Amino acid sequence: MKDKVVIHWFRRDLRLEDNVGLSKALAEDFPVVPIFIFDQDILSKLSNSEDIRVDYIHQALQSLQEKLETVGSSLHVYFGKVQDVFESLLQQFDVQLVFCNQDYEPSAIKRDHQIEQLLRKKDIVFHSFKDQVIFEKDEILKNDGKPYTVYTPYARKWRATLERKHYTAAPSKLEGFYTTSKKKMPSLKDLGFEKTALEYETPSLTPGKINDYDQHRDFPAEDRTTRLGVALRFGTISVRECVKTALKTNDVWLSELIWREFFMQILYHFPHVVDTSFKPAYDNIRWRNNEKEFEKWCQGKTGYPIVDAGMRQLNQTGFMHNRVRMVAASFLCKHLLIDWRWGEAYFAEKLLDYELSSNNGNWQWAAGCGCDAAPYFRIFNPDAQTKRFDKDLKYIKRWNPNYADRIERAIVDHKEARERALKTYKEALNEARS
């Protein structure tokens, strides 16, 4: 006789506390088998064997495992194709129900539909819940029932709709897990990856950084951003906890959390943005796409100190300060006239806190082709940005100590590049109108 169980499938919710799907699973009358699947189809596309994100997930799972051991259970971690793993689970257990939390990316929606179909054939219900956002899908719409495409009115409606129930934590009673001895977890080597310098720490809402977030967030040398992007990306912290804290301490940080959800609903309602511009007219831009210049941008060798410092920070740590991300992205699209998709793909490969919706949304913003985009004629001057946000060159000296070579190595003149970008963008829009 196979044990009757329910399954909770961890994905972007790597925590036991305030986890909606897990809470619902534990409320059932059958023991909960917690699982995580390293998706072979996803990992096979990662070219760097020292991928910091895989290491982050692996360490977060080890933390989960330790907590589950204290209640006499274990995390079941698999490496393979998702459908194959579920077919194996159905042979091992008498599965009654499967629980998880929603993922809104197009590929994840397709995957979940396939698993739901597989389970339906066995008369097993697949339950998914809202957990990684406060409002999802169609919960924040314009009065005419259409999705918002501009941030400011979306944020206004988001705030007006918010009630305490939306950020109240899900019950965290850790009783009802399937009793079993500790299960062996695949090593990084088993997955085809290697250990990085990352040391996982349970994320926390550090009062100092959040309370003064609005005063320090634009100055990269101060390193006073919350660094919670990766925790929200993988669900090692609850968005409800973040919103509750932001409401008490810092409205600007709350606005950033709303931006995250704005881009998520854009991706959900307009999945074409994955590959094409939100505004089709901008697909007429005749990008230069000079591969040598792109390589110099990637390596942090453009000759513009703040751009190069940002790219070197990214390459070395998997993180880049948000203000510098905007400058570096604008430089690639406007100064070098290189397709935003090239930059987006590079960030997707390197960023520890990479999230498709935010990465895509912000790159299209920088290129001027997205929803709620800055006008195409807004072109960041890297030197002016340096004077404003890193006037003592502390950030630049930390990540780009040879910045003094800038004049000899500058890849392009700012004034000439600006004029070229304006001309190219204008031609593309005129072509779209004709």
Automatic annotation (TrEMBL):
Native source organism of the sequence: Sphingobacterium populi
Similarity section: Belongs to the DNA photolyase family.
GO-annotated molecular function: deoxyribodipyrimidine photo-lyase activity
Keywords, comma-separated and alphabetical: Chromophore, Coiled coil, FAD, Flavoprotein, Lyase
Pfam families assigned: DNA_photolyase, FAD_binding_7
Enzyme Commission identifier(s): 4.1.99.3
Domain Photolyase/cryptochrome alpha/beta: 4-134
Protein name: Cryptochrome/photolyase family protein
Cofactor(s) listed in the protein's UniProt record: FAD; (6R)-5,10-methylene-5,6,7,8-tetrahydrofolate
Keyword Disulfide bond: no
InterPro entries, per database record: Crypto/Photolyase_FAD-like_sf (IPR036134), Crypto/Photolyase_N_sf (IPR036155), Cryptochr/Photolyase_FAD-bd (IPR005101), Cryptochrome/DNA_photolyase_1 (IPR002081), DNA_photolyase_1_CS_C (IPR018394), DNA_photolyase_N (IPR006050), Rossmann-like_a/b/a_fold (IPR014729)
EC primary class: lyase
Coiled coil spans: 404-431
